[in-house]
Amino acid sequence: MDKKEKVLEIIKRLDKIYPNVKTALNFNTPLDLLVATILSAQTTDVNVNKVTENLFKKYKTAYDYANASLEELEKDIKSINFYKNKAKYIKSLAKELIEKFNGEVPKTMEDLVSLPGVGRKTANIVLWNAFGINEGVAVDTHVKRLSKLLGLTENTDSDKIEQDLMKITPREYWGKLSHLLIMLGREICKAKSPQHKICPLNDICPSSGI
DNA sequence: AACTCGGGGCA
DNA sequence: TGCCCAGAGTT
């Protein structure tokens, strides 16, 4: 089974246990998701959803974030790690949305990654979940770890891993693959305690040991 | 490529 | 108490 066939098999199997997979971050609007995804860096989606439940009631548009003081925004996301950095990103990002994009969240990779605090991972999450656009593969720590464990990639650099995954995966599955691997990484193939026995990929995983 | 940012949950 | 967690920017 070559890598292209393997990816399709992985998607097929994971799709069965995670049907209609999508981001675990709660959101109503593209701006909500952009903010939530920035907040999610190096923390858990549970922590993010706890904060955004109230945050999104208070800040509904880019203008709301731009007009708020940095101190107030910091206070509203204080339970998130790196909250000072993230508050700064979100506030300046909101200004750029107003100046360059009429207050709307742009729908292209180029425009999204031009925003402060937004990298390819965040952009891919937003593009796929908010707009249904397959522009790339979202590579986070889970995808990074699993793509190597599964023998799909050998690189360690996130951008190279994304390129590798894009080459061997049909474009229509890029967004789905990202989230399937993230779910597998969170719930089954955990970094510290991989659950080989209940993993649907244990017979085709080089790292399974079963 | 290594380093910095660092709150909260859980063992 | 100590360790980890849906990254991105800077050096």
TrEMBL record:
EC number, as in UniProt: 4.2.99.18
Example of a GO biological process term: base-excision repair, AP site formation
Textual note on the cofactor: Binds 1 [4Fe-4S] cluster.
UniProt-listed Pfam families: EndIII_4Fe-2S, HHH, HhH-GPD
Chemical reaction(s) catalysed: 2'-deoxyribonucleotide-(2'-deoxyribose 5'-phosphate)-2'-deoxyribonucleotide-DNA = a 3'-end 2'-deoxyribonucleotide-(2,3-dehydro-2,3-deoxyribose 5'-phosphate)-DNA + a 5'-end 5'-phospho-2'-deoxyribonucleoside-DNA + H(+)
Reported cofactor(s): [4Fe-4S] cluster
Swiss-Prot/TrEMBL keywords: 4Fe-4S, DNA damage, DNA repair, DNA-binding, Endonuclease, Glycosidase, Hydrolase, Iron, Iron-sulfur, Lyase, Metal-binding, Nuclease
Keyword NAD included in the entry's annotation: no
Chain ranges of the HhH-GPD domain: 39-187
Gene Ontology MF annotations: 4 iron, 4 sulfur cluster binding; class I DNA-(apurinic or apyrimidinic site) endonuclease activity; DNA binding; DNA N-glycosylase activity; metal ion binding
Lineage: superkingdom: Bacteria
The UniProt record lists the keyword Iron: yes
Matches recorded under InterPro entries: DNA_glycosylase, Endonuclease-III-like_CS2, Endonuclease3_FeS-loop_motif, HhH-GPD_domain, HhH_base_excis_C, HhH_motif, Nth
HAMAP family assigned to the protein according to its UniProt record, in alphabetical order: Nth
Function: DNA repair enzyme that has both DNA N-glycosylase activity and AP-lyase activity. The DNA N-glycosylase activity releases various damaged pyrimidines from DNA by cleaving the N-glycosidic bond, leaving an AP (apurinic/apyrimidinic) site. The AP-lyase activity cleaves the phosphodiester bond 3' to the AP site by a beta-elimination, leaving a 3'-terminal unsaturated sugar and a product with a terminal 5'-phosphate.
Protein family membership: Belongs to the Nth/MutY family.
The protein's name in its UniProt record: Endonuclease III
Organism, as annotated: Thermodesulfovibrio aggregans
